[in-house]
Design brief:
169 residues, alpha+beta, five-stranded antiparallel beta sheet, three-stranded antiparallel beta sheet, 8 strands, globular
Length: 169
Amino acid sequence: MRPIGENEIRGSFVNCSKGEARKMHLPRGLADLPWDDLDYLGWRDPGAPDRGYLVAERGDGLIGVSLRVSAEVRRSLAKTTVCSICLTSHAGSGVSLFVARRAGAAGRDGNTVGTYICGDLACPLYVRGKKKNPLATRFTESLTLEEQVGRMRENLDAFLDQVVEERTS
């Protein structure tokens, strides 16, 4: 991913108001992030732990999505769950059900979509082996790293498609 700045990030959000985007806490040290290893920028809001944000390059622009951790899902520390985006397995609460309000009229009507994502939103770093967590496991695969990254991007795109999809029914 190419390095992006504060204004680009705030202007990319499709499922929240401009006011909400202005008020969100951005990740610290934007300039120091490992941009070459990121397929999207994901972070949790330190002031509101139930909130997360994700910004990805799509086509010729950026798409930002505001996320909330579902309050209805409670995980046992003994349970292992797999991230739907990068397929990293996490024990305990390492994977969260993130829910995004749909973009446009559907979102204003209260429609949401959700998926299970690494709780720290660091999928690109897990796939590349750049982030280690004793409670996270990457299974040995026959796919190359490039193929695993491609699959992760496809999974993310499928989720983002659901967020921006216009429902007519």
